[in-house]
Amino acid sequence: MKNYSLRFKRHINEVFIIKPNDLGMNFLTFWFKRTTFLLKKFPFLYLFPVASMIVLLMYFLLGKYLILLTNWLQYGF
Amino acid sequence: MVSKKKYLIDFLISLILVIKNFFSLIFYPYKTMRKISLEKDFRQIFFIFLLVFCYFKFVYFLKDNPYPAIFTFFVFFINFFLMTGFFYFLAKILKYEIKFVSLIFTFSYSIFPTLIWFFSTSFFYLVLPPPRTTSFLGKLFSIFFITYSLSLLFWKIILFYLSLRFSTKQNFYRIIYMTLIFLLWFTPYSIFLYHFKIFRIPFI
To answer: How far is B7 from chain A (nearest CA, A)?
Structure first.
């Protein structure tokens, strides 16, 4: 019992290691918390579709320059 | 004999913890980074840095006129401590509560996306050597590669933010200000490294 209590206390201390974010405006704080909540667990579920949309947009806007960017990145390691 | 065995077991535990944390950073970045910020086992840092060194050793055989792996690793080491030292002293000047050990641990683990990107780009360099063409397959690969790179970059930004969030315990705005000040000197520094062909893409 004592062991569980100690573990619980340690876990609570770990969770409240920092104060929650406050962006100054309720509207901003609300949307910030909603967005970051989604990114706390397996962020790639949202990051990959967002990245795909950005790249498709880039492809339509930049065309062959996207290929130049790939070349530059491929030599970048 | 017992101490030797204990030392070996401790070493293996640290290695397992590094692997576990790497996977947890993919699935639970927030929770894992919070745990990492409380870490004190320096053997984990050793394993991460060893992995970085292995990468430099591997890439040495791929490049045309490379710098020796030990030199590139040394530059990376300087980069890393310049960055952690900068944030530590900046937080101290601004009178924020900060732990240097926590900063080292969180920043070391935030190298993980960088390592994945550099390892995979070297692999793609071997399998599909550049330059890319404007053919259908060339365009398709470009779209895939940039999407993949951008996803890793977003993940890297998240881990970088969480590193500063848990190490300095500051709010979103202050972290953004600190990062902007960091970029003020880090951008010209990266251009300098690019000019001397040490790192074309900053290895942080």
So the answer is: 27
The pTM is what?
Answer: 0.92
Residues A24, A53, single domain; the answer is no
Q: Using alpha carbons, list the distances in angstroms from residue B21 to A11, A31, B30, B55, B162.
A: 18, 29, 12, 19, 14
Report ipTM for this prediction.
Answer: 0.86
Q: A53-64: per-residue pLDDT in tens? A: 999 999 999 888
Please tell me which of the candidates A14, A39, A67 has its beta carbon nearest to residue B132: A67
Q: Are residues A33 and A63 in the same domain?
A: no
pLDDT, tens only, B33-69? 999 999 999 999 999 999 999 999 999 888 776 789 9
Closest listed residue to residue B50, CA positions, set B26, B14, B25: B14
Interchain CB distance below 8 Å, A74 and B130: yes
Residue A64 structural domain: 42-77
User: Could you tell me if A4 lies within 8 Å of chain B, comparing CB atoms?
Assistant: no
Chain centre distance of CA B187: 17
Pair (A51, A64) in one structural domain = yes
**8 A C-beta contact, residue A20 and residue A27:** no
Q: Which residues of B touch A29 (CB under 8 A)?
A: none
